[in-house]
Every structure is written in structure tokens, then in C-alpha cells.
Write a structure and sequence with these properties.
Two copies of one chain form a homodimer.
Chain A (H helix, E strand, L loop, with lengths): L1 E5 L4 H11 L3 E6 L5 E2 L5 H11 L2 E6 L14 H25 E10 L12 H18 L7 E7 L6 H4 L11 H13 L6 E4 L1
Parallel strand pairs in A: 1-2, 1-4, 2-3, 4-5, 5-6, 6-7
Chain lengths: 199, 199
């Protein structure tokens, strides 16, 4: 299969590329690095990506920015960061992908543990991650031509404990390599409308 | 208690006003009608509402627009309608209310059945409703001074079957009066971080 991985240069993306690369033709896409670049917040940029890459069998997104900060000080603009990047950006990928993937192809988006298990400073992240999962459930039943869509909800990564560990005290961190298996399950499997929790 | 009801002139809002009005001082707020008006999409308008109303013990929101339409034709702009209105608008209410409610006060937002149970043309609604529920879970653990936040997830209303029934074939419609009980449970109860499902 030809699999587009958006966010390929991130911690999860690199693990996904390693996992899928052994048996698929993986196209690495980053924001400013990778074989192709895309700004997922702009639908035109996503369209240009598919025009450049051509037909594919799957797209995996491990991309998207979130705002973390105290609820008491949260501004509308801060709340909108995750809405416009991790949520709308990934929705853009799905909306465009539905017209460019081969029959039976798959879309895999990334949410996260905070949708179910909140932490301090994570109200925006909880909302955005839940929204991605809701979109997956909603989109799955409308996709034509055997197209599928799933989400992967990772908990904190072992590789990210240095940067974010203080916010996730008591959470069991998982290696990115284990999270990558969930993306493989989505790409190589036959399920749709699922959210694979890795926690 | 003094309870602000935003969306008071809608089908759910009117039922909530009737349910809460028997024992509380209810302040009815609408977009263009009601005792006070607010544009929930603008944080300044929400701030102005609280300045005008003064201290309160609870705020209930039964407000917010959503886009319904086929996934195959959905544009970024259409997907953003619900993000900026039903989601961000209700988040604005919560962000401002946390600084204006009396100790022990409550915030009650409205999501909807589509977060869990998708329908055709509902991908945006599924995403927005799930996002509201994620925000409720995330915000609940950060609110100070005994403040609480809950969501109410109604299914299709009996009163709305004429307008939307064709999209909800097979769903058991509920009367707005029954949905209003869930808001009462949130306002008069002691729970927080919950989503009360009325379906």
C-alpha cells in the first residue's frame, strides 16, 4: 500500500514510519521537513499535498498543535489554537482524503488520552481530542467506496516524559513504538469508526 | 438561586425556564430576545452579559448553532460553524462564568446524542458535541471555589421531529420537559464533570 504519513518527523510519526515502512510504501510529510510539506490548517495546502503525492491507499495523521494552560486564565484565542490546528487540521486531511484515496483506503487521525482522563491545564486538549473522536465516529458512517476512518488515542509517550512528564504524574507512559502498532491496526485492518486507545 | 439561562427562547431553554422557574430566580437570555441578549461567539459580549446581570449561582446554556450536511461536500467553513458557535460559544460562557459565579455555583452546557450515535450529515455535530463533553471533563477538575460544570446530552426532541425527524429515523424522541430535568439535576445537584444523557 502507498501510505501518506503526516507529522512524519514527530515522535509518533517516526515510529509509525518505521512500523509501516517494513511492508508499505510510506510517504513522509512534515510541516517544514519530510519528503513533502503541508500546512494542515489550510485546506488548499492539504489539496496541494494530494495533488503532489497522487493516489494513495491510506493517510495517517500524527500532527496538530494544542494549547496547555490554566483554565482560570484561558483566553478565547488560546482555546482556538487546538481547534484550528489539531482538530480542524486533521478534519481537513480527512475531508480532502475522502476524494483522493483509492477504494477501500483508510484515514487514521490522532486524539489522545486527555479526552477521557483530564489533567490540570488540559481543558482545551480534552475538548480537542474528544472532538477528533466524535468526528471519526460521525465520518465513518458516511464515507463511500469502502473508505475507513479510525482514531488513535495515545497516552503520554515515554519519549515525551522529559518535556511533559510533570503534567502526567501517575500516568503509565508508553513507548512510541507501541503507539505505532495502533496505527498499523487501523491501516492494515478492516475496522472503521474506532478509536484505538493505547493506555 | 439566581440562574442565568442562555438560549432561553429555544425549545429546550423554554422547558428549562419552566422547570427551574418554580424554585429559582431565572434570568432569561437570548440571542435577540429574552430579558438580556448575548452573542456567545464573542467573549466581550459574554463579559458584558455578566456585568449586566451581576453575581449569579448558576448558568445554563442551551444555545449554539451546528452545521448539518453531507461529509462528501463539507467545506472547512461549514465545519467551523459549529466550532465557533455551539462549541466556542459555550466555552466562552464557561470561561467567563468561572470568574463571576458565586462559590459553589454551576455551569451546565449542552452537547447532544450525536457525539455517541452518529447520523448521516452529522459529522460536524458529532465532533462538536463530543468536544463539549471533553471540555466539561477537562474544566471540571480545574474549577476553584466549589464551582461545578456538567453537560446535558439530549437526543432528538419530540418538539423538533417536524423539522429534523427525517434525519433521526428510529431514534426515540423525548419531550423537552424531560430534557429539562437533566439541567435541574446539574443545577440543584452536587456532581461535577458529568454528562447527563437523555436518550
Amino acid at each position: 500500500m502507498k501510505v501518506i504519513v503526516v507529522g512524519a518527523t514527530g515522535t509518533i510519526g517516526e515510529a509509525v514510519v518505521r512500523e509501516l515502512g517494513s511492508r508499505h510504501d510510506v510517504i513522509e510529510v512534515g510541516h517544514s521537513r519530510g519528503r513533502y510539506q503541508v500546512d494542515i490548517t489550510r485546506m488548499e495546502s492539504v489539496r496541494a499535498l494530494f495533488t503532489a503525492v497522487g493516489k494513495a491507499d491510506a493517510i495517517v495523521s500524527a500532527a496538530g498543535k494544542l494549547h496547555f494552560g490554566p483554565l482560570a486564565e484561558m483566553t478565547s484565542e488560546q482555546f482556538q489554537i487546538g481547534l484550528h490546528d489539531k482538530l480542524l487540521g486533521q478534519v481537513h486531511l480527512a475531508l480532502v482524503a475522502q476524494h483522493h484515496l483509492n477504494d477501500g483506503g483508510s484515514i487514521t487521525l490522532t486524539s489522545g488520552v486527555l479526552s477521557d482522563d483530564p489533567i490540570r491545564y488540559g481543558a482545551s486538549a480534552s475538548s480537542v481530542n474528544a472532538a477528533i473522536e466524535g468526528f471519526v465516529r460521525g465520518a465513518a458512517i458516511e464515507l463511500p467506496r469502502g473508505l475507513r476512518i479510525n482514531g488513535v488515542s495515545p497516552t503520554i509517550l515515554q519519549e515525551s516524559m522529559g518535556a511533559y512528564g510533570a503534567y502526567f504524574v501517575g500516568f503509565e507512559a508508553v513507548p512510541a513504538q507501541r503507539v505505532a502498532l495502533a496505527y498499523a491496526r487501523s491501516v492494515d485492518g478492516a475496522q472503521t469508526g474506532q478509536v484505538y486507545k493505547v493506555w
